[in-house]
C-alpha cells in the first residue's frame, strides 16, 4: 500500500508539467529550423529555447520520475512506510526551487549555454546554482533510498531484497556517483568564473569532468525503464520474470560499467590521450552486455506470459500476447526503439566510426531515440500503471492510452530516422539556422521537414498523455488494491550476499572511475597554461 | 553472511567480479597503451615507455613537429571580458588629455568625419588591443603606426578607457535605412561564416570584437578586403581572415553598407 501518495504524485506532476513545456519548446525548435518555418533572424532565441529544453529534459524531468518511482518502489516493494518523509519533501522543494532558479536566467537570455554548459561559454551564475540545487535535491533521495533499504534489512536479516528495490537503489548509487563529475565541474570551474572570481577557465578539464557525468546519466535515466521491464511488465501481462538472478546481474553490471566510459563523448578532444579513449571505448562496448541480458530475459518472461495464455509454436506465441494491454504495447515500442538506438550507439562508441558522425545531427537523433523513445515511453507506462494506486481512481480510457503510445512511437521514428540520416550526410548539430536554399544542403530539406512533422506528432502525443493523467484525477473512485511487482519463475528464497548488496559493485565502480579518469584529470588539473578566457553569454 | 564475508577472495563472487574487471582493465590498457600506438606505422616511438606516455596524453612537445617560422609579427595581446572593465575617473581624465592628438582623424568627440573609425563608446578592450598591435607592428598603417609606437602601456589603457567612456552612437534604430543582409543576420553556415551580428552588434557582442554600427563604410570595406588578402593579420587565430576570405565581394559590400547605415541621420547631424 502506498502511504505517501501525495509525495509521489507531486514528483510525477511536476515532472510531467515541465516535460510538457520542454516538449513544446522542442517541437518549436524542430519547426523553426526546418524549411517549413520562417527563420526568426535571432539565433539567441533558438539557443535560449534549446537550453531550457535540455535542462528540463536532462536534469529535472527524469530525476523527478526516478525519485517519485523510487519512493513508490520503496513503499510497495519493501512493504514499509517511507522513512524520512520530511526529507523527501525537502528534496522535492529543492528541485522545484532549483528549477525555477535555473529557468529565470535562461528565459532572460542570460544563460544560453545549452544544458551541457559548453565552457568557456559562461552564463548567469544563478543558472548553475539552480542546477546544483536540483542535483542536491536528488541526492536527498539517494540517501533516503539507502536508509530505507537499511531499515528494511534490519527488520529482515538475510532476506533477499526485492528485485525492484535492489535495482532502484543501484540506480540511486549510480546517480550519486555520476553526478559528482558535473558537480566538480560546476563548483571548481564554472561557478567561480560565473560569479566573477576568475576570468579564465580550463575548458578541456571541464569537458572531461562533464564526460564523467554525461554518459552514466543516461543509465540513470534508463533505470526506471529497466525496473519497469523487469518488475512491472511481466506482472501487467500475466507472466513471470524468467530469472531473478539475471536481472540482478544486469543491474550490477550497469553499476560497474556505466561509469568509466564517458570519454567516448570526447573522442574529438585533443586534451585526452588516445589510450584512455580506447579503454573507454572498450568499456562502452561492455555496457551493451546488461542490455542484451535484459532483452533476453524480458523476451523470455514475455514468452512465459504468452504460453500461459495458450500461445503455441516457435513464434506463434507472439500472437497470444495481450496486445491491447498498454504495458505490452509500450514494451514492444520501447524494445524496437532500444534496438535501433542501441545499434546507433555501437557506432558512436567506435573510435573510427564516430569520426564520421561526431557533432552531426546523427548524435541528436540517437539520444532522442534512446532517451525520448525507449526510455520515456516506459515513463508513460509507469505513470499509467501507478496512477490508479496514487489517485484511488481508475484509468478507464485504454483506447486513448494506446493511441497516445502509438503516436509517441510513430512520432519518435518519424522524428529521429531522418535526423540520423541528415547526420550521415554531414549536417552539423547545435546550429540554429540552415539555409536550405543553398544547393549544398537543399536535398536535406525533405528529411528535415519529416523530422519537424514527427516533432508535432510527439507534441500531440504528449498533450494526450497529460490529458489522460488529468482526467484520471477526476475519474470515479475505485480501489486498485496494493501495488505489486512481478514475481520470478523461481522466486529466490536466499540470494548470495554479492547479489543482495551493492557494496562490492559500488567499490568496483569507484575503482574503475579512478583508473579510467584519474590520470587524465590529474594531468589536466596540474598542467599550467591550459585555461582560456571565458566567453560570457550576453556580456557587452 | 555479512559484507565482511563479501570483500574476501574466499567469496566466489568477489573473486570473479574483481578478477574479470581487473583482467578487462589490464587487457584494454595493454591494447590501448602499447599495441595500438605501435600499430601506427607513421608514428615512431623510442621505446615502450615513450608509447605509453604518448597514449596517456602526457603533455610534451612533439619532436617531429617544428613551429612554423613567422615572417610577420602576430598579435600578442591577451583579452578577457574583464580587460579594463573597471576604469577609474583619473584614467579617463588622463585619456581625455592624451586623446587631443587623436582628434584630428577620430573627431573631437570620438566621431570621425574622415572615414577613420568612430571611437566614441567603442569597447575599451578593442581600442586597447588595436593600439597594442599598432605599437608592436602586428598591425600597420602609415598614419596610425607613428602615433602608437611611443605610447606606454598606461597611456594605451587610459586612451581605451576614455573612448569607452564617451557616449556611443545609439544602437537603437527606429527606422533602419537598409534591411539586414543575410550575411549579418544568418552568416553563411555552408561556408563556415558565422553571422557578423553575432560578434559585432545587431545580435550580440563577443570580447575583443568592435562594435561596428555607424562606422565608415569605406573603412569597413577596406578592412574586410585587407583581411581577405592577408594584408591585415592581427586577428587572433585568423578569425577574421578565415571569414573575410570566404565572403563574396557582394557580401563585403552589403555588410559594410549595412553597418554604416545603422545610426540614424539625426545622430550624425548632431556631431
TrEMBL record, chain A:
<dbReference type="GO" id="GO:0009060">
    <property type="term" value="P:aerobic respiration"/>
</dbReference>
<feature type="transmembrane region" description="Helical">
    <location>
        <begin position="209"/>
        <end position="233"/>
    </location>
</feature>
<keyword id="KW-0679">Respiratory chain</keyword>
<feature type="transmembrane region" description="Helical">
    <location>
        <begin position="52"/>
        <end position="73"/>
    </location>
</feature>
<dbReference type="InterPro" id="IPR023616">
    <property type="entry name" value="Cyt_c_oxase-like_su1_dom"/>
</dbReference>
<feature type="transmembrane region" description="Helical">
    <location>
        <begin position="245"/>
        <end position="263"/>
    </location>
</feature>
<feature type="transmembrane region" description="Helical">
    <location>
        <begin position="445"/>
        <end position="469"/>
    </location>
</feature>
<feature type="transmembrane region" description="Helical">
    <location>
        <begin position="12"/>
        <end position="32"/>
    </location>
</feature>
<feature type="transmembrane region" description="Helical">
    <location>
        <begin position="85"/>
        <end position="106"/>
    </location>
</feature>
<feature type="transmembrane region" description="Helical">
    <location>
        <begin position="283"/>
        <end position="306"/>
    </location>
</feature>
<feature type="transmembrane region" description="Helical">
    <location>
        <begin position="405"/>
        <end position="425"/>
    </location>
</feature>
<dbReference type="InterPro" id="IPR033943">
    <property type="entry name" value="Ba3-like_Oxidase_I"/>
</dbReference>
<protein>
    <submittedName>
        <fullName>B(O/a)3-type cytochrome-c oxidase subunit 1</fullName>
    </submittedName>
</protein>
<keyword id="KW-0813">Transport</keyword>
<feature type="domain" description="Cytochrome oxidase subunit I profile">
    <location>
        <begin position="1"/>
        <end position="536"/>
    </location>
</feature>
<keyword id="KW-0472">Membrane</keyword>
<dbReference type="GO" id="GO:0004129">
    <property type="term" value="F:cytochrome-c oxidase activity"/>
</dbReference>
<keyword id="KW-0812">Transmembrane</keyword>
<feature type="transmembrane region" description="Helical">
    <location>
        <begin position="126"/>
        <end position="152"/>
    </location>
</feature>
<dbReference type="Pfam" id="PF00115">
    <property type="entry name" value="COX1"/>
</dbReference>
<dbReference type="InterPro" id="IPR000883">
    <property type="entry name" value="Cyt_C_Oxase_1"/>
</dbReference>
<feature type="transmembrane region" description="Helical">
    <location>
        <begin position="173"/>
        <end position="197"/>
    </location>
</feature>
<dbReference type="GO" id="GO:0016020">
    <property type="term" value="C:membrane"/>
</dbReference>
<dbReference type="GO" id="GO:0020037">
    <property type="term" value="F:heme binding"/>
</dbReference>
<keyword id="KW-0249">Electron transport</keyword>
<feature type="transmembrane region" description="Helical">
    <location>
        <begin position="367"/>
        <end position="384"/>
    </location>
</feature>
<dbReference type="InterPro" id="IPR036927">
    <property type="entry name" value="Cyt_c_oxase-like_su1_sf"/>
</dbReference>
<feature type="transmembrane region" description="Helical">
    <location>
        <begin position="327"/>
        <end position="347"/>
    </location>
</feature>
<keyword id="KW-1133">Transmembrane helix</keyword>
Amino acid at each position: 500500500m502506498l502511504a505517501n501518495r501525495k509525495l509521489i504524485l507531486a514528483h510525477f506532476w511536476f515532472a510531467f508539467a515541465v516535460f510538457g513545456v520542454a516538449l513544446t519548446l522542442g517541437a518549436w525548435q524542430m519547426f523553426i529550423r526546418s524549411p517549413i518555418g520562417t527563420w526568426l533572424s535571432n539565433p539567441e532565441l533558438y539557443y535560449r529555447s534549446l537550453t531550457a529544453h535540455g535542462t528540463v529534459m536532462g536534469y529535472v524531468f527524469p530525476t523527478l520520475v526516478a525519485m517519485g518511482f523510487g519512493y513508490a518502489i520503496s513503499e510497495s516493494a519493501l512493504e514499509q512506510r517511507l522513512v524520512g518523509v520530511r526529507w523527501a519533501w525537502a528534496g522535492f522543494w529543492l528541485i522545484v526551487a532549483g528549477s525555477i532558479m535555473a529557468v529565470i536566467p535562461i528565459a532572460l537570455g542570460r544563460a544560453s549555454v545549452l544544458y551541457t554548459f559548453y565552457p568557456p561559454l559562461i552564463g548567469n551564475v544563478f543558472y548553475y546554482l539552480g542546477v546544483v540545487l536540483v542535483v542536491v535535491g536528488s541526492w536527498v533521495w539517494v540517501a533516503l533510498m539507502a536508509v530505507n533499504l537499511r531499515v528494511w534489512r534490519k527488520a529482515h536479516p538475510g532476506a533477499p531484497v526485492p528485485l525492484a528495490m535492489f535495482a532502484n537503489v543501484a540506480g540511486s548509487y549510480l546517480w550519486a556517483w555520476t553526478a559528482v563529475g558535473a558537480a566538480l565541474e560546476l563548483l571548481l570551474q564554472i561557478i567561480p568564473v560565473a560569479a566573477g572570481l576568475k576570468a579564465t577557465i580550463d575548458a578541456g578539464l571541464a569537458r572531461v569532468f562533464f564526460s564523467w557525468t554525461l554518459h552514466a546519466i543516461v543509465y540513470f535515466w534508463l533505470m526506471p525503464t529497466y525496473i519497469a521491464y523487469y518488475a512491472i511488465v511481466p506482472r501487467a501481462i500475466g507472466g513471470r520474470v524468467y530469472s531473478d538472478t539475471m536481472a540482478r546481474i544486469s543491474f550490477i553490471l550497469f553499476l560497474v560499467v556505466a561509469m568509466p566510459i564517458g570519454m567516448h563523448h570526447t573522442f574529438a578532444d585533443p586534451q585526452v590521450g588516445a589510450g584512455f579513449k580506447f579503454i573507454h571505448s572498450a568499456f562502452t562496448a561492455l555496457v551493451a552486455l546488461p542490455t542484451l541480458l535484459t532483452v533476453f530475459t524480458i523476451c523470455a518472461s514475455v514468452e512465459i506470459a504468452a504460453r500461459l495464455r495458450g500461445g503455441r509454436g516457435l513464434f506463434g506465441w507472439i500472437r497470444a500476447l495481450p496486445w491491447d494491454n498498454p504495458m505490452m504495447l509500450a514494451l514492444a515500442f520501447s524494445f524496437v526503439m532500444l534496438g535501433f538506438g542501441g545499434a546507433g550507439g555501437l557506432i558512436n562508441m567506435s573510435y573510427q566510426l564516430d569520426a564520421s558522425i561526431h557533432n552531426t545531427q546523427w548524435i541528436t537523433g540517437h539520444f532522442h531515440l534512446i532517451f525520448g523513445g525507449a526510455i520515456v515511453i516506459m515513463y508513460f507506462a509507469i505513470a499509467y500503471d501507478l496512477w490508479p494506486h496514487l489517485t484511488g481512481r481508475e484509468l478507464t480510457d485504454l483506447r486513448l492510452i494506446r493511441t497516445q503510445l502509438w503516436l509517441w512511437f510513430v512520432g519518435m521514428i518519424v522524428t529521429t530516422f531522418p535526423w540520423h540520416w541528415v547526420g550521415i550526410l554531414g549536417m552539423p548539430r547545435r546550429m540554429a539556422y540552415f539555409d536550405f536554399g543553398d544547393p549544398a544542403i537543399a536535398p536535406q530539406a525533405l528529411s528535415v521537414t519529416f523530422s519537424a512533422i514527427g516533432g508535432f506528432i510527439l507534441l500531440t502525443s504528449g498533450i494526450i498523455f497529460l490529458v489522460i493523467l488529468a482526467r484520471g484525477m477526476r475519474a470515479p473512485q475505485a480501489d486498485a488494491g496494493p501495488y505489486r511487482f512481478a514475481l520470478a519463475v523461481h522466486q529466490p528464497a536466499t540470494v548470495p550476499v554479492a547479489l543482495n548488496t551493492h557494496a562490492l559493485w559500488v567499490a568496483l565502480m569507484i575503482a574503475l572511475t579512478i583508473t579510467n579518469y584519474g590520470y587524465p584529470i590529474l594531468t589536466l588539473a596540474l598542467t599550467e597554461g591550459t585555461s582560456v578566457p571565458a566567453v560570457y553569454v550576453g556580456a557587452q | 553472511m555479512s559484507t565482511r564475508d563479501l570483500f574476501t577472495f574466499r567469496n566466489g563472487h568477489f573473486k570473479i567480479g574483481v578478477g574479470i574487471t581487473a583482467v578487462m582493465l589490464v587487457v584494454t590498457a595493454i591494447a590501448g597503451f602499447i599495441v595500438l600506438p605501435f600499430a601506427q606505422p607513421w608514428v615512431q616511438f623510442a621505446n615502450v615507455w615513450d608509447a605509453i606516455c604518448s597514449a596517456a596524453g602526457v603533455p610534451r612537445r612533439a619532436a617531429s613537429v617544428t613551429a612554423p617560422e613567422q615572417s610577420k609579427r602576430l598579435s600578442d595581446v591577451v583579452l578577457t571580458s574583464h580587460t579594463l572593465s573597471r576604469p577609474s575617473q583619473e584614467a579617463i581624465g588622463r585619456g581625455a588629455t592624451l586623446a587631443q592628438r587623436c582628434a584630428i582623424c577620430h573627431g573631437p568627440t570620438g566621431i570621425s568625419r574622415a572615414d577613420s573609425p568612430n571611437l566614441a563608446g567603442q569597447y575599451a578592450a578593442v581600442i586597447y588591443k588595436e593600439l597594442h598591435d599598432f605599437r608592436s607592428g602586428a598591425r600597420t598603417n602609415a598614419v596610425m603606426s607613428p602615433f602608437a609606437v611611443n605610447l606606454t602601456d598606461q597611456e594605451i589603457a587610459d586612451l581605451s578607457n576614455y573612448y569607452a567612456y564617451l557616449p556611443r552612437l545609439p544602437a537603437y534604430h527606429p527606422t533602419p535605412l537598409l534591411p539586414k543582409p543575410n550575411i549579418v543576420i544568418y552568416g553563411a553556415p555552408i561556408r563556415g561564416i558565422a553571422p557578423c551580428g553575432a560578434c559585432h552588434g545587431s545580435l550580440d557582442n563577443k570580447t575583443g570584437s568592435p562594435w561596428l554600427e555607424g562606422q565608415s563604410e569605406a573603412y569597413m570595406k577596406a578592412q574586410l578586403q585587407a583581411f581577405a588578402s592577408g594584408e591585415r593579420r592581427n586577428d587572433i587565430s585568423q578569425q577574421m581572415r578565415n571569414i573575410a576570405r570566404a565572403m563574396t565581394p557582394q557580401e563585403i559590400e552589403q555588410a559594410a553598407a549595412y553597418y554604416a547605415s545603422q545610426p540614424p541621420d539625426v545622430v550624425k547631424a548632431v556631431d
